[in-house]
Design a protein that fits this description.
alpha/beta, 38% helix, 23% strand, Rossmann fold, globular, 8-stranded mixed sheet, single chain
Length: 235
């Protein structure tokens, strides 16, 4: 774990103390309403096929909580110990571990879900994570990855405003996020044997799904990208 990762861990612990472990705000979401809208869009992409789901960087397990309640086997992995304890309380098999060196066997997962994590790291590191994802996915298994579109107008307004509010409240802020293009994530996935099924942008407050990740509205309202990959060959 790098010094920057330790700092992120401290920020998440602070958010958990401020808002409570059961709140999406403990995972860095500015709005609970936006979180629940995003979760609905993400779970649509995951679908309802039976099998083992790995929630990578799961936080308290709030994204996959409906799947666990529906009887799916959900394994959650997060580096933050308190987040893992909360995920276990939510009925998820939580493991404390590193997303870049997964403590899991090859081919264990039918679906890997990774939500709002990739933008915290440079593309080289994300590529390393995707290599591990490809290793733990079974052949034909799927990755659903969601990352923030940091070039969108909504983020260019919201992020500076959030940092100002954090400063006024005496709360630490996350560092500026990394901007990943859809093409960059697609290429990184293909390098490790993950073939792109589909990619689109979303704007959770309106539960808006934009069919093209490069369409004209994405730069305004495409607050996050969603990509669905399928494993075709071993990493």
């Amino acid at each position: 774990m790098t010094r920057a990762d330790i700092r992120k861990d401290e920020i998440y612990d602070g958010l958990r103390a401020d808002f409570g472990a059961a709140s999406p705000k403990a995972s860095g979401y500015l709005s609970e309403y936006s979180f629940f809208r995003e979760r609905a869009l993400v779970l649509e992409a995951v679908g309802d096929e039976p099998g083992t789901i790995l929630d990578l960087a799961c936080g308290g397990g709030l994204v996959t909580l409906p799947l666990a309640k529906a009887g799916h086997r959900v394994i959650g992995l997060d580096f933050n110990a308190a987040a893992c304890r909360q995920a276990k309380r939510n009925g998820i098999e939580a493991i404390r571990g590193d997303a870049f060196t997964l403590p899991l066997a090859d081919g264990i997962a039918d679906v890997v879900l990774n939500v709002e994590f990739a933008q915290e790291y440079e593309l080289e590191a994300v590529g390393g994570m995707l290599h591990e994802v490809a290793r733990v996915l079974r052949l034909g298994g799927r990755l659903v990855i969601v990352w923030g579109n940091r070039g969108a107008l909504v983020h260019r307004i919201a992020h500076p405003a959030s940092r100002i509010l954090d400063r006024l409240r005496g709360r630490a802020s996350f560092a500026a996020s990394v901007r990943h293009s859809p093409a960059g994530i697609q290429t990184a996935g293909e390098r490790v044997g993950l073939a792109l099924d589909r990619m689109f942008a979303i704007f959770p407050p309106l539960r808006l799904r934009l069919r093209r990740a490069d369409g004209p509205l994405v730069s305004l309202f495409g607050s996050s990208f969603v990509a669905v990959f399928r494993k075709q060959v071993g990493p």
